[in-house]
Amino acid sequence: GAVVSQHPSRVICKSGTSVKIECRSLDFQATTMFWYRQFPKQSLMLMATSNEGSKATYEQGVEKDKFLINHASLTLSTLTVTSAHPEDSSFYICSARATGVPKNIQYFGAGTRLSVL
Amino acid sequence: GENVEQHPSTLSVQEGDSAVIKCTYSDSASNYFPWYKQELGKGPQLIIDIRSNVGEKKDQRIAVTLNKTAKHFSLHITETQPEDSAVYFCAASIYNNDMRFGAGTRLTVKP
After folding, report:
1. Nearest-CA neighbor of A56 among A19, A23, A26?
2. Using a CB-CB distance cutoff of 8 angstroms, which residues of chain B are in contact with residue A31?
3. In sequence order, which residues have a C-beta less than 8 Å from that of residue A61 and are 6 or more positions away?
């Protein structure tokens, strides 16, 4: 299947700093990328949908100024957690949806575990 | 919007037995139903999917069935192995819309 690379896999930072997470589709072009947050033993919670070249669409309750998303190319989307606080500690996962046929299929990155001290 | 319910939340089977996980969805317009396997500390991996024009799909030990009338779909794993132990998520989506996930099923296969 298609490969989505997410980096870093783990990050530990001090409260108040910003953290950038990268999501790349390695062998396909992705018009749309998604960012999810997952708490322990829970399902994936969609945070935002990003389309290449346009502003991201955020789910209700997700602060767009807190979680900055940039989708500058068909193979790269970034999530920046600004002024991170301990409550932002979580597992963040990106996914990319391939353009072309077949549609709908989403491939996931390996996730980034963020720990804010 | 779409609502996906998944059962059971945990499932424990003996190696070699079969495992069945069931999901229901609310939006009759949903036409794509993937299943993902997530191992501890990793991202979900697509293991099988089915579209609304098909009732059943099989890939080796894994099969998925879809009942559009009842709006439910199921994952069947036969001859389970310890490496099948993971959390499984079902999902549903309408063409090119975002995907909604079930709450997940933690499958444990005992050797």
Report:
1. A23
2. none
3. none
Q: Which two tokens stand for residue B90?
A: 């079902």
Instruction: List all residues of chain A from 38 to 97 with a beta carbon under 8 Å from chain B.
Output: 41-44, 46, 49, 93, 95
What distance in Å separates the CA atoms of residue A10 and residue A20, rounded to the nearest whole number?
11
Residues B8 and B69: their CA atoms lie apart, in Å, by: 21
> Is B86's Cβ below 8 Å from some Cβ in A?
no
B53 touches chain A (CB under 8 A): no
Q: Do B96 and A104 touch (CB under 8 A)?
A: yes
Closest CA to A44 of B20, B99, B109: B99
Which of A82, A32, A28 lies closest to A57, judged by CA?
Answer: A32
For the stretch B70-108, pLDDT in tens is 999 999 999 999 999 999 999 999 876 778 999 999 999
